[in-house]
Amino acid sequence: MASTPPHCSITATKPYQNNPYPQNQLKNHRHSPNPPKYHRPWAPQRFSPSSLGGGNRGRGSGASPSTSAAAATGQLSQTPTRFPALSPLQTPKSDLSPDFSGRRSTRFVSKMHFGRPKTAMATRHSLIAEDALHHAIQFSGDEEGIHNLLLSFESKLCGSDDYTYILRELGNRGEFEKAVRFYEFAVKRERRKNEQGKLASAMISTLGRLGKVGIAKRVFETALADGYGNTVYAFSAIISAYGRSGYHEDAIKVYKSMKSYGLRPNLVTYNAVIDACGKGGMEFKQVAEFFDEMQRNGVQPDRITFNSLLAVCSRGGSWEAARNLFDEMLNRGIEQDIFTYNTLLDAICKGGQMDLAFEILAQMPAKNIMPNVVTYSTVIDGYAKAGRFNDALTLFGEMKYLGIPLDRVSYNTLLSIFAKLGKFEEALDIVKEMASAGIRKDAVTYNALLGGYGKQGRYDEVKTVFAEMKQEHVLPNLLTYSTLIDVYSKGGLYKEAMEIFREFKSVGLRADVVLYSALIDALCKNGLVESAVSLLDEMTKEGISPNVVTYNSMIDAFGRSATMECLADINEGGASGLEEEDESFSSSSISLSPSNSLPLAVGKVDSLSKLTKTEDHQIVKIFGQLVAEGNNRTKKDCKQDMQELSCILEVFHKMHELEIKPNVVTFSAILNACSRCNSFEEASMLLEELRLFDNKVYGVAHGLLMGYRENVWVQAQSLFDEVKAMDGSTASAFYNALTDMLWHFGQKRGAQLVVLEGRRRKVWENVWSDSCLDLHLMSSGAARAMVHAWLLNIRSIVDEGHELPKLLSILTGWGKHSKVMGDGTLRRVVEALLRGMGAPFHVAKCNVGRFISTGSVVEAWLRESGTLKVLVLHDDKHEQASLPLPL
DNA sequence: GTAGGGTTAG
Prior knowledge:
The protein is mainly α. It contains 41 helices and 4 strands.
């Protein structure tokens, strides 16, 4: 049968675990000292080498002698690891070419969590110190008043221990100004250098924790100049302070300067340096050099060293490296704590390995480490980011059941889930619950609401929430403004977008890559590619480097406006569009007149803006222009794409020049751009770019496109394995893009092969049952290939003599990928397809996105003699220039 | 000296 896969080896994939745990086991999970052990027969008893991923490939060949030992000690991976070769710390390599990056995040620098209280430790302060602290907290008077307060306690406080206690505690309450006053007073009255030194390091560390790195630096430099700052403690404290604020280069400088002060870095110093490097977004390999260095200098890493290294993996999404580190801790007999587990879990969640994350979470009670609010919010967020919202909410239920109180972060995590899903009732319930728990809404809370409402096009609510935010004196930040500018400009509300941008500038904030990328994307989506290019140029001039997201938007803009307008022309020109079975391949109606209006190259369009010198920012000018044009914006004529093609090639060129690594979204964007090409020759130029980026992805696309299905299927499987490890929407977008491209160029059997593989791997949720085909997550090519496959499947049911369900439905939704609310592109495509093959489906009365028929009518149709012929797909025969073979 | 949340691409 035409719809069956070719005879080639299809490697088995891991069994997919749909539901992470049955309900009855959930109930047994108690937050008690002696939790019941989980029995999960569906879970692997130990980790198989194949589940270890690429991080271990090429090492430790042969059998692992530590297998049983590993099982006994609960090791996460079994490959023997040997330090100090640092092999377990290496970043795992993809099976695909090194450029293929499954990671999507472009955020490397961690968020700063300032103001975390210093965990309690044995203090040697006196009761008088507590009294003084109490007075200091209550105090709200002027400078003279605090001086008097200090004087009144001067004779009673016992040296630096008391003062250290007070300034740390003041720091825990955010009262850094009072802390500095206490510090200055204490240092002045203290004669002994070493006591002054203790005070200085305590002060620097307190300021560092509060994010007051500038003041910390002053304290440090003064202490150095006055001769009591040259202690390992003070240096470690300032390194840590720099690290917390993301100044890892300064942290390293200070560390390197220690030698010249005659100081030997100790364990705390190294831990601070490693942590600073990680927080500053340094690559694991570089951070590991400090790890090597400390051991060379005879300092043995401890639990915190490893926890900080784990955090580096988590920021990079290197979950395999994190597992290796975790195992290495066990090998070395280093105790593991809640930080270890939470950081490991974060790495695994960020690596998208949610089933493994759940597994580890479930093992924690048996290790006597009870999951806390951080553990749960980490995994809940992981599920949400993987698109597994039900699992996220189930876990939230478990957390509540266990009586773990929610905090600000976990409330915001949940709120953002509901807001993203557009479930505003639930979101507002969370807001209410927050209020009754005494947690005030912060910028994160408001930003989640603004983004949620904005993405649903509910601009009135956006305005109300933003007004409330200001009323409540919650300061809008860069993320707030980025969100607002993004939703307004994507919605075409240029006036509002411009006002927000003006306000953003007036409060002294500086645009960043995200803000620019959002704007560029909006312009591209609205067909304003020229303006997008000019902004790309503008941001570069401002010293803001575009990233892969920026470029993906630009690539995705290719052919978009032309296609849309030409389609509009086709529809206006009488052809009902329904008969237009495939709008793409031979769109001969497209006018081929060249035009100069598209810029030839990035960076050449700024000459105009230089001539028209105004005080307004380029962004404001663009918005102003768009507002002035209003709805009367003149539609561009359909153009031949050679101009656009050279523009996009220039974009690729720039990407290479800036060494911006593509990721799977880039590949999807290129494939989508191919689907918008009017000729195979044009597409082949884009595919050549794909080849330069990633030869294996190219190999699969090329092989399927040329009809060499059998030859590339093994390679395709390995590619699909990698894609499947990503979150659901990333994976489905790739399948959609690949299928569309194949369908567009007439490789319909290849397209069907890919969608069937996608179905097998559950890339799209619940695609089909015997009674219903749900296409709402699919692109037009994927949907069409799927309709054929589903109908063939229904036909085999009839053939086997079984009865069909009474009612059969095909759901198209609104066509998720149209990105236009209410734009039923997918519905129209499917309707045309069904009509074209004479399938007896009609639009359901109550739902225009749903096609229905009765089982008996469909059965009769399937039994007709000509039906099979229209159901079986054939490849279109086109004269195709051959593409270069993959390397 | 160590952990979790909010913004951009399909």
